[in-house]
Sequence to fold (140 residues):
Amino acid sequence: MDVDSYGAIERLQSIADATGNGLPAFDRTTGGITLYWFGTLPPTISAITADYDDTVPIDVVSTPYRYGDLLQEADRLISEHSTVVSVVAPRTQADGIDVSIFATAVETAGGIDAVLEELDSPLPLYADVGQLVPINLPTT
Fold:
């Protein structure tokens, strides 16, 4: 990522964090940035995209949900269902939440659909079965 892209990401992320409405994502293939945004763009975002118009392509994509709402629901899922859910994260495109469910929970409930019903989320969940595997990094 070049210095212009880094600067654009930092500025966009600052506003996205303050509002909870968006998430910028760098595309390593094109060198551009996609800003996933819920609602009307504030003038500050338009100003940033104009500042980088000649150096960094920035595409703004409308999202169905606020990124902040997805984060809040992901936090709720992992705190209330920690014996069922191993990993949760808002999807980059802000169309729902990725959820990894422990295999034992799926077996106990009788299937992944039964587990999803138990989670009772108002937002779309994209589920798989699995968990993070810790790795031991060498110390120096």
Q: What stands out?
A: Residues 3-62 form a domain with the GMP Synthetase; Chain A, domain 3 fold (CATH 3.30.300). The mean pLDDT is 91.
